[in-house]
């Protein structure tokens, strides 16, 4: 299973999970597949189908889990959140770091570093 990140999109394989820290105000849109998510400090679990969106409402870690091959798009947060710009910056930086890590792992397997 590979975690595939391109820009502000995330591709999760079936049964694959990723934690997104401090993303309050970020909107997720499921492009394809089905997503299960839970937020730190929230007793509810949420299921998001293709075409649906979900606004992250907590500052803790949000766990995203692909119930099947799932493509998720991270959209610009709503302006109503006071720290939304900073959260968006942190999320974008996290996505870039994860993409670089995944690329390094893939190359290491091919070139035997």
Describe this structure in words.
With 113 residues, the chain is an alpha+beta fold. Helices cover 25% and strands 35% of the residues. The strands form two sheets. A five-stranded antiparallel β-sheet has the order 1-2-9-4-7. It has a four-stranded antiparallel β-sheet with strand order 3-8-5-6, with no helix packed on it. It is globular and about 30 Å long. The chain starts with a strand and ends with a helix.
Sequence-ordered SSE layout with sheet pairings:
Elements (H helix, E strand, L loop, with lengths): L3 E3 L2 E4 L4 E4 L6 E6 L2 E5 L5 E4 L4 E3 L6 E5 L3 E6 L8 H28 L2
Antiparallel strand pairs: 1-2, 2-9, 3-8, 4-7, 4-9, 5-6, 5-8
Q: Keywords for this structure?
A:
single chain, 113 residues, alpha+beta, Jelly Rolls, 5-stranded antiparallel β-sheet, 4-stranded antiparallel β-sheet, globular, disordered N terminus
Quick structural summary:
With 113 residues, this protein is of the alpha+beta class.
